[in-house]
Specification:
The complex is a heterodimer of chains A (about 110) and B (about 120). Chain A has about 110 residues and is mainly β. Chain A contains no helices and eleven strands. In chain A, about 0% of the residues lie in helices and about 55% in strands. Chain A is globular.
């Protein structure tokens, strides 16, 4: 099974900072990677799919890049509402299946 | 606008069967999307349980496959999860979610989620 490793596991940053979270897959997954934001007590919210496609309604300060095994989520200028936990998730098309990373908690410095 | 709503018992006894339903509103379950269940134990990460297509085709997480059944009821526009032989390790928030299709292509990501329902396994 494909495993995803996110780094860092936690991160402290300030409003206005540029932040990058990394997700590494245990084997190549082409561009089949998504990123989610989750706030306490809420369902995850899709930010990025297909490694770099911005979900409708998501602010443009969020961007995704990468292919193969190494992927990044970048927030260009942190806003107060961005402090949350972020998950990457991969999709395997054959056999069909999905795996999540362990999460990165983004906290206010 | 499609919305998902989970329902079912919040408490299940050990060795029993967890049963949940996800009602789809604002759209048809017979669209080109797959429909999934995802869970999250308290304070932990997300785990995909399985998915179903309106035709009845299913795919399951290999680690749960022996205990999971997902079914669809097109007449009620809903799909359901059954997880048997539950233990305390199955205590979690259970979400239903839709796999995104955009521009005529479908991608392996979840664009619409239910609010989640907490299920506790305890005697």
């Amino acid at each position: 099974a494909i495993q995803l490793t996110q780094s860092p596991s936690s991160l402290s940053a300030s409003v206005g900072d540029r932040v990058t979270i990394t997700c590494r897959a245990s084997q190549g997954i082409s561009s089949a990677l998504a990123w989610y934001q989750q706030k306490p007590g809420k369902a995850p919210k899709l930010l990025i799919y297909d490694a770099s496609s911005l979900e409708s309604g998501v602010p443009s300060r969020f961007s995704g890049s990468g292919s193969g095994t190494d992927f990044t989520l970048t927030i260009s200028s942190l806003q107060p509402e961005d402090f949350a936990t972020y998950y990457c998730q991969q999709f395997n098309s054959y056999p069909r299946g999905y795996t999540f990373g362990q999460g990165t908690k983004l906290e206010i410095k | 606008q499609v919305q998902l709503q989970e329902s079912g018992p919040g408490l299940v006894k050990p060795s029993g069967t967890l049963s949940l339903t996800c009602a789809v509103s604002g759209g048809s379950i017979s669209s080109s999307n797959w429909w999934s269940w995802v869970r999250q134990p308290p304070g932990k990460g997300l785990e995909w349980i399985g998915e179903i297509y309106h035709s009845g085709s299913t795919n399951y997480n290999p680690s749960l496959k022996s205990r999971v059944t997902i079914s669809v009821d097109k007449s009620k526009n809903q799909f359901s999860l059954k997880l048997s032989s539950v233990t305390a390790a199955d205590t979690a928030v259970y979400y239903c979610a839709r796999v995104i299709c955009s521009g005529g292509s479908c991608y392996g990501a979840f664009d619409i989620w239910g609010q989640g329902t907490m299920v506790t396994v305890s005697s």
